[in-house]
Amino acid sequence: MATATRKNEEVLAKYEPVIGLEVHCQLLTATKIFCSCRNRFGDAPNTNVCPVCLGLPGALPVLSRRAVTLAIKAALATRCTLHETSVFARKNYFYPDLPKGYQISQYERPLATEGYVEIPSGGALRRVRVQRIHMEEDAGKLLHEGFPWSGEKSGVDFNRSGVPLIEIVSYPDLRGSEEAHDYLSALKSVLLYAEVSDCNMEEGSLRCDANVSVRPRGAEAFGTRTEIKNLNSFRNVARAVDYEVARQVAVLEAGGRIVQETRLWDADRGETASMRSKEEAHDYRYFPEPDLPPLVLSREWIEEVRASLPELPAERRRRFVEEYGIPEYDAGVLTLGRDVADYFETAARTSGSAKAASNWVMTEVLRKLKEDDRPLASCPVSPERLAETIRMIEAGTISGRIAKDVFERMWATGDAPDAIVEREGLVQVSDEAAIQAAVDAVVAANPQQVETYRKGKATTLGWFVGQVMRRTGGKANPQVVNSLLKKSLGG
Ligand code: ADP
Ligand code: MG
Ligand code: ZN
């Protein structure tokens, strides 16, 4: 078995995965893209509909300015070139969720092209190129379960029909499931910073198809790709890519060839299965949408949107490294979400110690939020309070060890750190006489270890420090403990 696994890995290592992602993202507008129906998830089926989004004959679409503004914002945030003129087209196909029999999309002349998203790569950042961003309308949703009649028939909810979408297509620049995951996570972060979408994958505001191929390592030409659909989480994207890469390698190793096709990911079985081959692929018969004029963007409009963009995650990450001197990795974690980045900056500035603030946020704050499964918005410890705690450590009022307890109590009670320290008598002991007494007691009680230490095993000093700290309930000043111990042990 172990040999078989190693053999598999060796075979896999001969090939390089190549992945390009197509991401659909719902825009955070109040209304739909071509009518004034409400754009809201979770309303009772078919309550947000009108002749336009139901595709009734004679109803005419009117493009939402707000949707275009958000699409421009997404394009600028991904550093794309915006095209002054883009054109809407009809993409024709038949499916019960598509009342008009066509989807209004953009095809030959999309809104924007040639951008990039930066992903972490060996401590720095690397660009994954975006090929295009175009605007389109969402389709309705088929309801197969959850109703008394679900045994016999399916329903259609048109609330989603006409919800504004952008599709963001990457170049095949990704080289494995981990990079695919990193790209999605970076893209989501950018879209959230720009407030373009809520990017909620469970509610379908962010959806992803993965194009996967493999090529022998060192080869220039790409292999034939398959497109995988039905990926409903980042984890499933990574799993499906891994599965598909292994499947394609096995086919090639057995002397077969890859068929260009669309495959469906089955999360329960953990595999992909063929849905339709290229021969049966849709011919969408695209043609220009006659009911909508070309979309023309003015300079002023683009500049106005540009001015509204916040500092984006990659810039913020670079600034954090420069301004606060924290490691690239930490800056990456701290800037993934805008709220965490804001929290860190407040704690860093208020405490005057960015390194400590970064450590506290990265370890304690994020850990506790995860444990409690709550968002940062409801964090019981404000960044100012965290900063106060850090200042108490740096002033020597409490030890780093005790600070952890103070933090736990702040989290549980919402009290201020100085109140907790005073109430619980946690002030750090720096008084030499008191600490010397503890040192003497530890030295007297452990002749064996003293012997070892004196024979030259300086590494046991840490053990002695631990013993003295225990005796003082963690309150002794570690620097004082260290120097008194060295003196007493004759180091
Ligand atoms: P289509 O219009 O048929 O969907 P595109 O050329 O627009 O084809 O590509 C769609 C997606 O497939 C893009 O994300 C692109 O990066 C990706 N892609 C193209 N060729 C390959 C390949 N050989 N391997 C993996 N992904 C690929
Ligand atoms: Mg495609
Ligand atoms: Zn409508």
Characteristic terms for this protein:
491 residues, alpha+beta, Arc Repressor Mutant, subunit A, 3 domains, 9-stranded mixed β-sheet, 3-stranded antiparallel β-sheet, 16 helices, 20% strand, elongated, binds adenosine-5'-diphosphate, binds magnesium ion, binds zinc ion
Task: Provide a descriptive summary of the structure in words.
With about 500 residues, this protein is α+β, with helices and mostly antiparallel strands. It has a nine-stranded mixed sheet. The chain has a three-stranded antiparallel sheet with strand order 5-4-15, with no helix packed on it. It has a two-stranded antiparallel ribbon with strand order 3-16. The model has no long low-confidence stretch (mean pLDDT about 95). Helix 8 packs across helix 9, helix 8 (about 340-350) packs parallel to helix 10 and helix 13 (about 430-445) crosses helix 16 (about 480-490). Helix content is about 40%, strand content about 20%. The protein folds into three domains: about 1-305, no CATH class; about 310-425, no CATH class; about 430-490, Arc Repressor Mutant, subunit A. The protein starts with a helix and ends with a helix. Strand 13 (about 260-265) and strand 14 form a beta hairpin. Bound molecules: adenosine-5'-diphosphate, magnesium ion and zinc ion. Adenosine-5'-diphosphate (ADP) binds near residues 20, 172, 212 and 213.
